[in-house]
Amino acid sequence: MTSFFFASEKDFSRLLELKQEWFEYEANNDNRLDKSFSKKGLATTLKETLADNNSIIIIARDSSVYIGFVSVQIGEAPPHAKPTNIGLIRALYVRPEARRSGVATKLIEKAHRWAKEHGATRVSVSVNAQNTQALSFYKKSGYHPRLVVLSKELPNRGKTL
């Protein structure tokens, strides 16, 4: 049976392992990500998230095995927008063997509830355009595009000015 709980310092090493799996998965889908960041960078950001009163990590556990997590943060709307608090999904990951079992849906529902309890009026998430599985999941969960970010690689040339 799957249980869900808020992460604390005592979960650090097991959660770090799960976050490293998540980062490797993301890096395999996005060649702009630096795979070496997974070693030291994730430990630092995990410590910061666990210490941040405006952030929470919710863990899914099956028996004694951590099978997924969602990281959510409360942020403010940009200065040019109407003032409101926004729940920002920073990361969502479910181990491959636990996918398609409803774990991700329950994690997102719990993240929504936490964000609402902490003053958020909406929740947003950024997803790599090539991650069709995640895009489909979020669409089924009621998310819709609000902003499209386009990027272009620039040629590697010398100074032009």
How would you summarize the topology of this molecule?
Blueprint: E1 2-6, H1 12-29, H2 37-51, E2 55-62, E3 65-76, E4 85-94, H3 103-117, E5 120-125, H4 132-140
Parallel strand pairs: 4-5
Antiparallel strand pairs: 1-2, 2-3, 3-4
Helix pairs in contact: 1-2
What is the CA–CA distance across the termini? 63 Å
How many DSSP H or I helices?
Answer: 4
Helix- and strand-based class?
A: alpha+beta
- Large-scale geometry: globular
Q: Tell me the number of structural domains.
A: 1
How many E-type strands? 5
**Approximately how much beta-strand content do the residues carry?**
25-35%
Rg estimate, integer Å = 17 Å
- Give the SSE string: EHHEEEHEH
Q: Report on the biggest sheet.
A: 5 strands, mixed
Helix coverage percent of residues?
A: 25-40%
Low-confidence stretches: none
What is the highest CATH level, the class?
Alpha Beta
CATH topology: Aminopeptidase
Relevant CATH superfamily:
Gcn5-related N-acetyltransferase (GNAT)
- Strand order across the largest sheet: 1-2-3-4-5
